Amino acid sequence: MRRLLALVFTAAASTVAAHTSSAAIRPLTPMQGHAVIQAHEWHAGCPVPLSGLRVLTVPYYGFDHRTHVGQLVVNARVARPLDTVFVKLFRIRFPIRDMHFWHEYGPHPTGGDLTASFECRDAVPSPCNGNAKGTSWSMHAYGEAVDINPRENPYVGCGMTRDKTALSYMKRSWHRRGMVTPAVLHAFESIGWGWGGSWYGPTKDYMHFSVNGH
Question: What is the mean pLDDT of residues 135-160?
């Protein structure tokens, strides 16, 4: 069985790496839709229906220097442009820690350093605002934002971050693997997306890319 799964994953990675986009973008299966609901990542009243989401399957280059098959749940409108972005990241061997559907929406989500997109939630206020709660939808609630390697690219404000495992990565002049590079920025800019690391003022969301930059 393990050998069969390995062959399936290898074939999928080869297909996506060849940029056969039509084979990499699919509606959520009933099982996947149920998992997203059970993970409390979608509920009635969310700004996009489950039918408006797609599972984007792409290869990614891991921190272990191996090719992996990752999945993101994204808005159907941005699935194809994001496909081109992640193909570019794969080709330049930009390392991604983790990007698995079941690690985000499974019964035992791993959290931590997970690259992901869709979460039906409010925007998270700046660390400058302490423990304040958001009052408007995050772009993640539309499936039109992606967070890349959150540990290596933390959300910071006023010299603080809520992720204590990311403290050393607040020093952006010391570049380490997995941190956003100009090449990563250019890949997202090529589809018109903005970066939270470019926000004006003391708040920067270095992991965050979105369709409108917010």
Answer: 96
The amino acid at residue 138 is S
Closest CA to 93 of 178, 20, 16, 25: 178
Report, as an integer, the average pLDDT of 158-168: 92
Q: Domain of 111?
A: 2-210
Q: At what angle do helices 79-91 and 182-189 cross, to 10 degrees?
A: 150
**In what helix (H) or strand (E) does residue 150 lie, and over which residues does it extend?**
none
Number of domains forming the structure of the chain:
1
Q: How many other β-carbons are positioned within 10 Å of the β-carbon of residue 98?
A: 19
At 68 the pLDDT is 97
Q: Which of 125, 131, 116, 113 is nearest to 202 (CA)?
A: 125
Separation of CA 73 from chain center:
9
Task: For residues 156 and 202, give the distance between their C-alpha atoms in angstroms, rounded to a whole number.
Answer: 8
Query: What are the pLDDT digits (tens) for 120-135?
Result: 999 999 999 876 676 7
